Amino acid sequence: MLTPDQARDRAHDIVSRARAAGADAADAVFAADAALDVSVRLGKLEDVGRSESEELGLRVFVGRRSASVSTSDLSGDAFDRMVERALAMAREAPEDPWAGLAPQDRLLHGTPPLLDLDDGGEASPESLRDAALAAEDAALAVAGVTNSEGGGASASRSVYALATSHGFAGGYAATGYGVSVAVLAGEGGAMQRDYAHHGARRRRHLDAPDAIGRLAGERAVARVDPGKLASGPMPVVFDRRVGSSLVGHLIGAIAGAAITRRTSFLLDALGTQVLSPGIAILDDPHRPHGLRSRPFDGEGLPVSPTEIVVDGVLQTWLLDSASARQLSLEPTGHAARGVGGAPGVSTSNLYMAAGHVPVETLIADIADGVYVTELIGQGVNGVTGDYSRGAAGFRIVNGGIAGPVAEFTIAGNLKEMFRAMTPANDLEFRHGINVPTLRVDGMTIAGG
User: Exposed, middle or buried, 427 (CB in 10 Å: 0-12/13-18/19+)?
Assistant: First the structure.
């Protein structure tokens, strides 16, 4: 695999060719990935897979017209054909008054931050097999676990580079490791499934495989013989595994494209109270060895920690350059770019700050409620904020977690849900989006 510097030079090379061939401006992305995955089931090796890819994406501008092409053929002749094709497409494209590269005076210059994303190592198939087997063995050893859907372990390394015709060129590498297992508990048609997974940039930061497996087994056993919920309004407590989706809906509603198209339920919310007082949502692209850390955004702009919500008040939209121009604002350093198409918007290591009370205190005054550990379906309207999803989890009775429940629906409106939200103090950084356990009062339950 190429080094980040070599990947940067590849991207810079095709940008130079595009400019020489007549493009008014251009940018290019190079992305390479090598991954090794091992899966096991019931103590036997099921599959070993290795994948490698290298792709280059080019975007050219002819006036206000633009086009994007991509290729996995990285020969010099292919580069020339790619440039020719992109320019021909751009000349026929409609004009876009907002299209263009990021502001030149905002580009990242100098040494990017060191984020400790690449441990430089490789994992052998044997070591990954052993980790997957250890996780599955630990899950199967939990009393009540009756079958396995399998365990897996993976290792990957990726290289990403971006170059623009107006002065930016940079690249970086990142490794990733993961262990997962999914098992079944119970018998026959009453079987229940659950899983556990952990991923990390550096292998030494992974949880022990037996701890991952034991957690999967305990989760599956706890779900056996679920009951039904009665319909009506009640408090809903979201487990950290699923509560992050609520923050994801907020991010989708404040992304530049949703605002410029006027398709957001938070369209006029900038500078207003959108969450309960005291709640903060932050984005930290500089988190060392973070799962979504990055030294620059998809347009070559510097990235920095961002306060998105402070004391419940929305502080900013998330803007790439095109949406910023349309709104007469500045880009926020949240552009994300793949090898195809124009940049979109993405956060990095997004999280809701921890609250001030333990989970036990958060639920102590709930006489009748539900603790949700699984969400099903995609019943969320980004324009109105209406929210309705299938769910499973556990009853909350007189301030304590009671038996499992399944086949119910939780519904509300995200605007009201956000303002009725209370976070616990149990924030952990384990995913791309991290939240503490969340309580939302006043939701509507439709029981099975």
Answer: middle
